[in-house]
Predict the structure.
Amino acid sequence: MSDEDLSKDQFFRELGVIAERMIAAHGKDFAMGALVLAARWIAEGKSFADHRSNGAPT
């Protein structure tokens, strides 16, 4: 595996851990919604840092 492949695998593992934590705390619907929202922000070029102040999107 290349360094890039190893890096991507690590990110997928981290994402899996985060998803499992969200499911355990708030259920599958929340986890899926949060991941879709994150994908939407990425697609729209929005900054995640802009949404940290109150923990909710604006």
Notes: The chain has a mean pLDDT of 90. The chain has one domain: 3-51. The two ends are 40 Å apart (CA to CA). Helices lie at 3-26, 28-44.
